[in-house]
């Protein structure tokens, strides 16, 4: 009798847990990623056997060949290369810089040429320095105080902003447009504080542009490390007459052909509705591009593998796209969207990973209010994996050109507090990527792709192309 009563008590008092089909599928995705994930091995090869993959480089071509080979090995329904012409900018021999407080007394500082910059004269460039906090200061100073000098942009990223991409957006204009704007006031060169929240000795490169500036009036631009920027700023306060010298040998060559790498699983029910997941295969040349954006590429590749390995049969066509030339031209993203429109393809969803391989926290969603609410409604399915951020916002640079009314775009959002320690710098290397964090990101992306594919998006107004 006691045994019967005890069993009855246990049955009544113990909650009955029954996993839903979605919970089972998502758990299977995470289990597969964390036990048999391929992303880390793929990234190891991209980073350590190929290295930095600047558009137009031999390394970029090797990355195209390697990733196509790996996609071929997954047994997808189709894998192909999409030709795209890309710019070819080369850095040349390493840059060199110092500041001089009096004749013969110099202090070396770490710099790197900004992507797209012209070179200095063959013997280097040496001039007095004017320090500013941003482009808006140029007009206040005027041509008389700038002409013949090197402009030193020294506005730091705002450390009080928890969203580090907001901090980056707040000062990246000085990197991209600083040379073009300073040249209007007669500056002979610019030095830009690196886009980095910590103090270190790694200068961070990145894209810059000259706008409509005639070729013969373009001035050289370089990034200086944050430690170097602090030291230069302090020196100028003590000795405003200090001079800065730098030498760089970069060059812009003719465009060359490269490729987007694409693989797909054909949808079983709605094959004409295409869902894209991707990252950009090119990187800057200083490190090996592990976080930016090798991580996003291998995660996107693993999304299709994870769904296949867990036995999921997609209703819609799932396509992985490894875009070329995001860093200094956006040619790959624009070409993909152009071809999609010319073929009258219907893209209903696109997801990009381009914020590093750190611990995933959720997604930003660029869609109608109804579709944002739909995705937010799946929060409970993600919470066991500590994914909690589902908010309206931007998606990704490469998938942006695909945007049409009624389409859902999304971006994986990892924890970014350490991202700008490595962004576009020599220390963006494989050793700084955590295997488990990378795998969690791939599983999180695959889970969202699964849910979107299974339930579809909420129709607002679909426009093909």
TrEMBL record:
The record's section on SUPFAM superfamilies has:
Zn-dependent exopeptidases
| InterPro entries the record matches | CPQ, Peptidase_M28
**Which superkingdom?**
Bacteria
Cellular location of this protein?
A: Endoplasmic reticulum; Golgi apparatus; Lysosome; Secreted
Q: Where is the Peptidase M28 domain?
A: 260-447
Leader sequence residues? 1-18
Entry keywords, A to Z? Carboxypeptidase, Endoplasmic reticulum, Glycoprotein, Golgi apparatus, Hydrolase, Lysosome, Metal-binding, Metalloprotease, Protease, Secreted, Signal, Zinc, Zymogen
Q: Signal: is it a keyword of this entry?
A: yes
Assembly and partners? Answer: Homodimer. The monomeric form is inactive while the homodimer is active.
Name of the protein this chain belongs to:
Carboxypeptidase Q
Give the organism, scientific name: Flagellimonas profundi
